[in-house]
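Let's do one together. I've listed all components of the complex below, 408 residues spread over two lines.
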Amino acid sequence: MGDESAVGLWASFAVAPGWKLKVIGSKPAAAPAAIDDERSDDASLVTRCLQGERDAFDAIVERHRRAVYQVCYRFVNNHEDASDLSQETFVRAWRGLSRFKGNAALSTWLYRIAVNVCLNRVSAKKPETEPIETDRFVDTQTEDPGAGVLRDERAAAVRRAIAALPEKQRATLVLRAYHDLSHQQIADILGSSVGAVKANFFHALNNLKKILGREP
Amino acid sequence: MTHLTPAELVDAVEHTTGAVPHSHLAACETCRNEVARLRDVLFASREIEVPEPSPLFWDHLSSRVRTAIADMPAGRIPSRAAWLQWKVLAPLGALALLVLVLATVMTRGPLTSPLEPTPQSANYPNPASAASGDRDWEVVSEIVGSVDLDQAHEAGIVVGPGDVDRAALELSAAEQQELMRLLKTEMEKAGG
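Okay, and this is what the predicted structure of the assembly comes out as:
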């Protein structure tokens, strides 16, 4: 996968007031051996599931539930729907487990199911773009309350902007920006090409900027 | 000057730019500004975190999944041959049988009961006695005289749809004329 190098080079940023960016380092990628171990563990769990061991599927759920929940939450921006969508994702995975060929990582396959479940949901129902969890605890000892409020307002605006993106752009942004999937993995999940994923990512960022520019 | 494509701009934002776009960025302020602008937006979006649910939530989610799976009709992992289950095969079999019956009926024409002879067939004379004066019929009746329909059927002598038409087409002109003559003679005898 020629695009995998992007994962290791994914930079993390620190921002100073006034939106100036400063690159402070690279996000460490998971060691290849660890990834292999994880994949072989997943493969053996799938095999055990197909042999009728129900506990093995519990282990799969336990291992991937956080990542699946977070993908779902990024789409719907509220805990209740994210919880329902996570459950639906795992139930669909259970139904389709015999079709999992093991060509991709189990996590990628679960992401694909989660994205499809979420896209179906958001197509059928407009999500609430204002989450109930936006009220964050502000430590008045160390943080200026005014800055905290501004930050929360900014976060809410970004959430609204992401929710307003076209579906594929939103899915690309979520998988790339928050889950560090490579362009190739995203292309596999969305059934498109690496070029299309990059184009979607570009348009997602571009549209996000426009939407945020219109925010009061 | 040709500016960077969207894919090249994304590579630049992610610091995976190739040599050519890199040299372009060094020379093009427009593209540099575009990359900086995209990085700002990316950073803003990456700041948004998913609130951590209650620690009890994860076990609750696992429990919900377990219950939902247990409530599924089969309650077990669908096997690769799930489509071969009787619930699928029974309707398919019934449909195939229906199609077969319809095809047979439409090919053979309207069904008549073999137990109820038509008026014409009831009036037909015994072919063996009717042909007694004919040398060819004598040969035929000598061969088949003691064979009834059931025995013929068991022997595989079955007239299928279109067999008579095909046999008639294979006759020579002289044989067709002779067949016509025999049929007319038999019909005249039957008509009285």
